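step: validate -> pass
step: tokenize input -> pass
step: predict -> running
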Amino acid sequence: MVRLVGENVESAIVSIREALQIAEEMELDLVEISPNSTPPVCKVIDYSKFLYERKKKEKEQKAKSSKVVVKEIRLGPHTDDHDFNFKIKHAIKFLQDGARVKVDVFFRGRSIIYKEKGEIILLRFAQELEEYGKVEKMPMLEGKRMIMIISPKK
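step: predict -> pass
step: emit ->
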């Protein structure tokens, strides 16, 4: 026994054989919609049209969803003020466009001994961008890089 629903079909509980016969008479397909309910729900529809419309809806949802863009800015432990300000301007533009900014300080060779300088630069960077974005991930050392992520303010 199944609950039969659909356009131009009277909602009723009928046997599977009857449901198939009704669908065949209307030259449509019998599709199981809700198998876990009691009794299971079957709908009389054109299955190819149903698949087409479902695919179309999925495509629309995918188009509406926003893609998260991550822009990367690289600094060094000895980055000068002019370069620093230049990178700040780029970061502000990225944040205003709605992208997340990944700022990293790359330590080359023996410069790894200046970890504190790297952290100071990143914290200063975050402070400069305070009105445009918030720190999502605090400075963290990963190998030869110290990374911080800043996301835009809504």
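step: describe -> Residues 106 and 142 are 10 Å apart (CA to CA).
step: cleanup -> pass
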